[in-house]
TrEMBL record, chain A:
Entry keywords, A to Z: ATP synthesis, Cell membrane, Hydrogen ion transport, Ion transport, Membrane, Transport
Subunit comment: Has multiple subunits with at least A(3), B(3), C, D, E, F, H, I and proteolipid K(x).
Protein name: A-type ATP synthase subunit F
GO terms, molecular function: ATP binding; proton-transporting ATP synthase activity, rotational mechanism; proton-transporting ATPase activity, rotational mechanism
Membrane topology: Peripheral membrane protein
A Pfam family recorded for this sequence: ATP-synt_F
Role noted for this protein: Component of the A-type ATP synthase that produces ATP from ADP in the presence of a proton gradient across the membrane.
Main location, first listed in the record: membrane
Organism for this UniProt entry: Methanosalsum natronophilum
TrEMBL record, chain B:
Native species: Methanosalsum natronophilum
Gene Ontology terms describing biological process: proton motive force-driven plasma membrane ATP synthesis
Family statement drawn from the similarity comment of this UniProt entry: Belongs to the V-ATPase D subunit family.
Signal sequence range: none
GO MF annotation, one: ATP binding
Official protein name in the record: A-type ATP synthase subunit D
Gene name, Swiss-Prot/TrEMBL: atpD
């Protein structure tokens, strides 16, 4: 399986340097369709995105990405992922354990 | 099913008693599963916190390094070097079982490479680009680790929630309803027995 990166030119260049091939440069308008096409790609195991890009997506797609296991979505920048997990922990366990 | 909707018969009473016994043993097992899952979750939670902070630090570092490389070499030079890379990191997804929850175990191959194996010419590029590439390789390694741990946490949380719902449904809905039905049948049977005794007494009085 492979890793995929979606984001603007600034964000994705570094990942190309690390050898990742599935690098999708996308502006705000193309973001949603690019993410949807990656979700349908069975070869992608991990999807890397910037937190700010994730926030731009529609709420339903965001929810789908947060729940998705294959591919797993890892966001960088900001504290978004931890707050997503934090909400999930609060909901499931009933106590905020992410402190 | 309401408590008064059951047939007040002895066979129904036996059936309900069996159901209560089964629900109680199921409830006990599910409670144990929930506690076990929460213990597992606590162990992984600390790892997840560490990995997240390491990941953020690695991203900061990689961002700074590529910023310097772009400032010194120019964006086009960095981009052209990035396009020259040939070797792609590959990941393998295996599954691991934690108390019935299937969680992924991600194995990665060849993320960190020695400088001369990256695919671009060493002489044509500066050390800033090498440093940026190295920082991003470290970042990708951390991302792979974070993906594994965060997915495990997500799946564990889903299962904890599901198990908790089942435990609560059994504890507060199924078992109380069954117990109520059992009490209703018992009382109804006693009442029927009393009615019968009274009837027999009346018949005996008439016969005399």
């Amino acid at each position: 399986m492979e890793l995929a990166v979606v984001g603007n030119g600034e964000f994705v260049t570094g990942f190309r340097l690390a050898g990742i091939r599935k690098v999708h440069e996308a502006n705000d308008n193309e973001l949603e369709s690019t993410v949807r096409s990656i979700l349908e790609d069975p070869k992608v195991g991990i999807l890397i995105m910037h937190e700010n890009d994730l926030k731009k997506l529609p709420e339903i797609l965001k929810l789908k990405l947060n729940e998705s296991v294959e591919p797993t979505v890892v966001t960088l920048g900001g504290t978004g992922e931890s707050s997503n997990l934090r909400d999930k922990i609060k909901q499931s366990v009933g106590v905020d354990l992410w402190k | 099913m309401g408590a008064t909707e059951v047939k007040p018969t002895r066979s129904e009473l036996i059936e309900i008693k069996k159901k209560i016994k089964l629900s109680e043993s199921g409830h006990k097992l599910l409670k144990m599963k929930r506690d076990g899952l929460i213990l597992e979750f606590f162990e992984i939670l600390n790892q997840a916190k560490d990995v997240r902070s390491e990941l953020d630090a690695a991203y900061e570092e990689a961002n700074t390094k590529i910023g310097i490389a772009k400032a010194v070499e120019g964006t086009i030079s960095v981009k052209s070097t990035a396009f020259a890379l040939s070797d792609e990191p590959d990941i393998e997804l295996e599954s691991n079982n934690i108390m019935g929850v299937v969680v992924p175990k991600i194995k990665s191959t060849s993320v960190s490479k020695p400088m001369n194996k990256r695919g671009y010419g060493i002489l044509g590029t500066s050390s800033y680009i090498d440093e940026a590439a190295e920082a991003y390789e470290i970042l990708v390694e951390k991302i792979i680790l974070a993906a594994e741990i965060e997915t495990t946490i997500k799946k564990l949380l889903d299962d904890i929630e599901k198990t908790k719902r089942r435990v609560n449904a059994l504890e507060f809905k199924v078992i109380p309803e069954l117990t109520e039905s059992m009490t209703f049948i018992k009382l109804r049977l006693e009442e029927m027995e009393r009615e019968n005794t009274f009837r027999l007494k009346k018949i005996k009085d008439k016969a005399e």
